[in-house]
Amino acid sequence: MKKILVLLGMLGLIFSLRDPFLAVAGTFEPLRNKVVAENEQQKERRIVEREKRLLLRILDDLKTLIAVVEQETAELQREKDSIALLESPVRGNDIDDFINLYYAYSDWLKEKQAEFESDLALVSSSRSPIQENWSKRMAEMSVKFKRFDKELEKKAGHFDSEEKRLANIIDRRRLLQDTTANMEERLARIEKKQTERSVTKEREEGDANQLRNRIRIVQSELLSLPLIDEDILKHYKNLSERALGEGDWLLAKSNEYAAIRDITAIITGAESSPSKTAVEAAQVRVRQMYEREINRMQRRIDTIERKRSQVSPAGSLREVERSADLNRFYTDQKMRIQDYINRLRIQFDSWLAELSELL
C-alpha cells in the first residue's frame, strides 16, 4: 500500500511539471513558423534578383542585336539606292530579298524584346518569380537563331552562284570579242590581198566567205549576251561575304543561347543555393562554349585576311579602284567580326560572374 501511494505521488508530480513545459513549447511554435516564412521569402527574393539580372542581360543583348541588324539593313538600302536606273533589276531584287530577311529577323528580335520587357516589369512590380520555363524559352531562341543562320547561308550560296554566272558571261563576251577581232583581222588581210590582185583566187574568196559567216555567228551570240558591268561582281562578292559573316554571328548566338538554356535552371531554379558541383559544371560548359565560338570567329577573320591579301591593286584605273573597294570591304568585315568577338567575351565574363555568385 505504501508503494502505491509513492507511485501515485510521483505521477502527480510529473503531470504538474508537464503543463508548464507544454506552455513554453507553445510559445516557440509561432516563432519557428515566422523563421520558416522569412527563409522562404529570402529564398524567393534571391530567385527574383537572379531573374531580373537574367532579363536585363538578355534585353541588353537583344538591343545590341537590333542595332546591328538595323545598321546592316541601312547599308544594304544604300547599296540598292546606288544601282543605276538602266541596270537589270536582278541585283536590286536580290538586295530586296536580303533586306526582307533582315526585316523578318529584326521583327522577331523586337517581339522578344517586348516579351522580356514585360517580364521585367512583372517581376519588378510583384517581386515574385515569373515561374516561367526558362530552359524552354532559351531553347526556342537558339533554334530561331539557327534558322536565320541557315537562311543567310542560302543567301550566300545564291550570291556566289550569281557571281559565277555573271563572271562566266563576262568571260564569254570577252572570248567572243577577241575571236571576232581575230577573224576580222584575218578577213581584212584576205580582202587586202584581193584588192591588190586583178584576179581573185577562189580559195581566198572561199576563206573570206567562211570568215564572214563565222563572224556573223559569233556576233549573233555576242549580241544575245547581256552587257554586264564587271563592278557587279564586286557587289555580289560583298553580298556573299556579308551573308556569311552575319550567318557566323547568328550561329554563335544560337550556340550561346543553347548554353544559356542549360544554366538557367541553376540561375532561376527552385533551389536558392544550387550545389557547388552543379555550378562548377555549368561554368565549364559556359567556358567551353564561348572559347569555341570565339575561336571560330577568329578563324573567320583569318579567312578574310587571306582573301584581302589576294586582292591585287594592279591593272587599269578601274581595276585598281575595284581592288581598293574590295580591300575596304574586307577591312570593314574584319572590324565587324572583331566587334562580335569582343561582345562574346563580355557575355562570357558576365555569365561566369553570375555563376560565381552561387558558389
Low-confidence stretches: none
Indicate the overall shape.
elongated
Output mean pLDDT. 83
Q: Classify the helix fraction into a percent range.
A: over 70%
Structural class: mainly alpha
Q: What is the beta-strand fraction?
A: under 5%
Model description:
The protein is mainly α. The chain has 7 helices and no strands. The protein has helices at 2-81, 89-126, 134-196, 202-224, 231-267, 276-309, 317-356. The radius of gyration is 38 Å and the shape is elongated.
Question: Secondary structure elements and their pairing?
Answer:
Layout lengths: L1 H80 L7 H38 L7 H63 L5 H23 L6 H37 L8 H34 L7 H40 L3
Helix pairs in contact: 1-2, 2-3, 3-4, 3-5, 5-6, 5-7, 6-7
What is the compact description of this entry?
By secondary structure, the protein is mostly helical. Helices cover 88% and strands 0% of the residues.
Primary descriptors:
elongated, 359 residues, mainly alpha
